[in-house]
C-alpha cells in the first residue's frame, strides 16, 4: 500500500489544516528538488524526528521520493501538536526559498506562486518565504498590480516624497493587497523602498538568510486591515524605481495581452511546467478570478474615445481629467483601455491618482491626460457619430408627434379611361409578392420599402412588441407578428426578435460571442440577415465582419425602447419574451439574466 492510499484509508475524515490533495501536489514538487538522501537531510534540518522517517520507511512499501514527503506532510497536517504545524510550515517555506534552488530567485518565485495557488483554498499564502494565514479579501488584484506599476512610473518625479497610502488603493483594496503587489516588484528588483516611510515599522529587518535585507511587517499590516480607522492619511511609502526598462516592459506586455485578449504561446510554454491547469495559463491575467464579461477591446476603445470627445467638446482643452467612476458601463476596463490608448498615441498620461481623503473613504480614481494635437480631429469624429444617432432618434420622434392634415376628397365626373391598367396591376401584384412570407400556412405581408442602403435604415423599438422602421424617406410602424417574428407555437416573439431587441439595447451589436460561434446563434443571425435583405431589397451583407470584434454588429441603426434610455418606465418582461428564450435557447449562448447584461 502506498502512503497516500494508507493515509486515505486510515483517515476517512482527517482533520487536516491543509487539504490532502494540496499536500500531495506540494509533495510531488518537493520530491523533484533533490535526491532521496538529500531530501531526508532536508526534512531533518526542518525539524522532523528521524524516528518518524524510519517509521514511514518501514510502514509503507514501494515508496518514492514524493511519497515520503507526502507521508511526512500528512502526519504533520493532522497532528494536534502546534509544534508539528510549525514544522509543516517550515518545510513548505524552505522548499520555496531561493537557497533551495541554488540561489535562483526567479525559479523560487515560480514555486512560491505554485504553492500559493494550492494553499489559498485553506486560507494560507507564502509572504517573504513565510507561510501566513490570509483573509479572502486579501487575494491578488491584477488591476491593482497594473495600477501601481503605471502610477509609480508616471509619478517618478516624487523622488524622496512618499506615495500616500490613500492613493495606492485602486479598487477599495486592503493594505495587505497593496503591500503584496509592491513586494512582488521589490523582490524582482524593479523598485526599492526609500527612508521616507510611515509608519516607520511597516518595514522591518529580515532573517540574514533572506536575499533581501528588509521585509514588510505583516503582523502590523494585518492589524491595520482589521482596524481600518487606525490607517492615518499621512501614512505613505517612499518608492524608488530600480529598473525602469523592466517596469515599462511589464506594463506593455499586460496591455498587449488585454488588447489581443490572448496569452502569448511563449509565456504559456515558459510556465506550463509549474501549472497543471493549462486553461489557467491560457486565460489573460486581467480575466483571472473575475466574472466581468468585458467587451472586445475595439468596443471599449470606442466608448472611451466617445467619452473623451465629449470632455473635449465641453472644455475645449487638451488637458482633460477622466474620472473612472463616471464611465458607468461595467463592461469597460477603464484602466487598461486608458493605458492602451496612450500606447496607441492618442494622449499622454500625466497623473494617475486616487482622490479619496481618508483611508475608509471609497476610492475615487482619476487620470489627467494631455491629448496629442494631431489626434484631436479623429477623436472628435466619435462625438459626431453620437450626434448623428441622436438626430435620427429626434427625427423619428418628430414624425410621430406631427399630425398630418387630412386632405379634401377630389370630385371626379365623366368617363375615366386608364391606359396600362392591366400591366400596372400585374406589377403591383409582383411587388407585393416580393414582400410576402409564409409562416405556418399563413401569408404575412411585410412592409414595402424601396431598395435602401443599410446606412439609411433605422429601426426604433417603441416597446418590446412594436417598432418604427425608417428607410430613406419612408416610415412604417408594425409589430413583431407583422414582420414574421412570432413563434409558430406560442405566438410570442421568437428568438430572432429577442436577439434583435437585445442588440438594440447594446448599441446595435451583441456582447462578445465565443469562437467558434454556436450553431444556434449562426441560424438566428442568418434569419435576421435574410429578413433584412428581403424587406429592404439589398443583397449586400447587413452585418459587419465578425472577425474584427467577435460580435455581431448591424450596419443599420437600432434604437432601444424609450425606457431603455433612462426616460422612466419599468423593464419588466411583459410579453414573456425572455422567459420563452430561456426555455428554448441552447445552453451554449444563453439570454442574459438582467437588463445590464445585454
Description:
The C terminus is likely disordered. It is globular and about 115 Å long. It has 21 helices and 17 strands. With 598 residues, it is an alpha+beta fold. The protein has 4 domains: 120 residues; 124 residues, no CATH class; 83 residues, Ribosomal Protein S8, Chain: A, domain 1, CATH 3.30.1370; 172 residues, no CATH class.
Radius of gyration: 33 Å
Mean pLDDT: 81
Report strand order across the widest sheet.
16-15-14-17
**Beta-strand share of residues:** 5-15%
Distance between the termini: 56 Å
- SSE-based structural type: alpha+beta
Rough shape? globular
Total domains: 4
Give the strand tally. Answer: 17
DSSP helical segment count: 21
Query: Are there runs of 5+ residues with pLDDT below 50, and where?
Result: 6-13, 564-598
In brief, what are we looking at here?
This protein has 598 residues and is an alpha+beta fold. The chain has 4 domains: 3-122; 138-261, no CATH class; 297-379, Ribosomal Protein S8, Chain: A, domain 1 (2-Layer Sandwich); 426-597, no CATH class. The protein has helices spanning 3-10, 20-31, 36-45, 50-59, 65-78, 82-95, 105-119, 142-154, 175-187, 218-226, 244-260, 265-271, 278-282, 297-315, 334-343, 376-401, 421-434, 495-504, 519-536, 546-549, 577-584; strands at residues 124-127, 130-133, 163-164, 191-193, 203-205, 214-216, 236-237, 239-241, 319-323, 347-354, 365-371, 436-439, 442-445, 457-461, 466-471, 474-479, 557-559.
Amino acid at each position: 500500500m502506498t502512503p497516500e492510499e494508507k493515509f486515505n484509508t486510515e483517515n476517512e475524515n482527517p482533520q487536516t489544516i491543509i487539504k490532502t490533495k494540496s499536500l500531495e501536489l506540494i509533495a510531488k514538487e518537493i520530491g523533484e528538488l533533490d535526491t532521496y538522501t538529500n531530501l531526508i537531510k532536508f526534512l531533518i534540518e526542518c525539524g522532523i524526528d528521524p524516528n518518524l522517517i524510519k517509521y514511514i520507511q518501514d510502514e509503507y512499501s514501494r515508496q518514492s521520493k514524493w511519497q515520503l514527503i507526502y507521508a511526512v506532510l500528512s502526519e504533520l497536517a493532522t497532528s494536534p501538536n502546534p509544534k508539528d504545524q510549525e514544522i509543516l510550515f517550515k518545510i513548505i517555506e524552505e522548499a520555496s526559498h531561493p537557497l533551495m534552488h541554488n540561489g535562483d530567485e526567479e525559479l523560487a518565485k515560480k514555486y512560491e506562486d505554485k504553492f500559493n495557488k494550492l494553499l489559498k483554498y485553506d486560507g494560507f499564502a507564502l509572504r517573504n518565504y513565510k507561510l501566513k494565514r490570509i483573509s479572502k479579501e486579501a487575494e491578488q488584484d491584477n488591476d491593482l498590480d497594473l495600477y501601481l506599476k503605471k502610477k509609480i512610473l508616471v509619478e517618478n518625479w516624487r523622488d524622496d516624497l512618499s506615495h500616500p497610502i490613500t492613493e495606492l488603493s485602486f479598487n477599495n483594496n486592503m493594505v495587505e493587497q497593496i503591500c503584496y503587489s509592491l513586494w512582488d516588484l521589490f523582490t524582482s528588483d524593479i523598485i526599492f523602498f526609500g527612508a521616507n516611510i510611515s509608519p516607520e515599522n511597516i518595514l522591518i529587518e529580515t532573517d540574514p538568510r533572506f536575499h533581501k535585507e528588509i521585509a514588510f511587517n505583516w503582523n502590523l499590516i494585518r492589524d491595520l486591515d482589521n482596524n481600518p480607522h487606525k490607517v492615518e492619511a499621512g501614512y505613505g511609502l517612499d518608492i524608488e524605481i530600480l529598473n525602469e526598462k523592466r517596469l515599462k516592459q511589464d506594463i506593455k506586455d499586460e496591455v498587449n495581452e488585454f488588447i489581443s485578449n490572448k496569452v502569448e504561446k511563449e509565456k504559456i510554454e515558459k510556465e506550463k511546467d509549474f501549472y497543471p491547469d493549462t486553461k489557467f495559463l491560457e486565460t489573460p491575467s486581467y480575466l483571472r478570478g473575475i466574472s466581468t464579461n468585458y467587451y472586445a477591446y475595439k468596443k471599449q476603445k470606442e466608448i472611451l474615445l466617445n467619452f473623451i470627445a465629449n470632455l473635449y467638446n465641453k472644455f475645449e482643452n487638451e488637458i482633460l481629467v477622466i474620472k473612472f467612476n463616471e464611465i458607468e458601463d461595467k463592461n469597460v476596463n477603464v484602466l487598461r483601455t486608458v493605458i492602451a490608448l496612450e500606447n496607441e498615441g492618442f494622449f499622454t498620461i500625466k497623473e494617475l491618482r486616487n482622490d479619496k481623503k481618508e483611508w475608509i473613504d471609497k476610492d475615487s480614481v482619476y487620470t489627467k491626460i494631455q491629448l496629442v494635437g494631431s489626434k484631436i480631429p479623429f477623436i472628435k469624429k466619435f462625438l459626431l457619430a453620437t450626434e448623428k444617432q441622436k438626430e435620427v432618434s429626434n427625427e423619428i420622434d418628430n414624425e410621430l408627434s406631427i399630425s398630418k392634415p387630412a386632405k379634401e376628397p377630389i370630385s371626379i365626373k365623366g368617363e375615366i379611361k386608364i391606359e396600362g391598367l392591366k400591366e400596372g396591376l400585374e406589377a403591383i401584384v409582383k411587388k407585393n409578392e416580393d414582400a410576402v412570407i409564409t409562416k405556418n400556412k399563413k401569408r404575412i405581408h411585410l412592409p414595402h420599402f424601396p431598395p435602401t442602403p443599410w446606412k439609411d435604415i433605422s429601426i426604433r423599438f417603441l416597446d418590446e412588441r412594436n417598432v418604427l422602421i425608417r428607410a430613406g424617406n419612408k416610415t412604417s410602424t408594425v409589430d413583431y407578428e407583422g414582420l414574421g417574428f412570432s413563434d409558430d407555437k406560442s405566438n410570442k416573439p421568437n428568438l430572432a426578435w429577442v436577439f434583435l431587441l437585445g442588440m438594440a439595447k447594446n448599441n446595435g451589436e451583441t456582447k462578445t460571442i465565443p469562437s467558434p460561434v454556436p450553431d444556434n446563434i449562426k441560424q438566428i443571425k442568418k434569419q435576421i440577415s435574410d429578413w433584412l435583405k428581403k424587406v429592404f431589397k439589398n443583397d449586400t451583407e447587413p452585418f459587419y465582419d465578425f472577425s474584427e470584434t467577435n460580435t455581431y454588429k448591424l450596419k443599420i441603426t437600432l434604437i432601444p425602447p424609450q425606457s431603455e434610455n433612462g426616460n422612466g418606465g419599468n423593464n419588466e418582461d411583459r410579453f414573456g419574451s425572455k422567459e420563452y428564450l430561456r426555455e428554448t435557447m441552447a445552453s451554449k449562448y444563453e439570454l442574459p439574466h438582467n437588463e445590464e447584461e445585454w
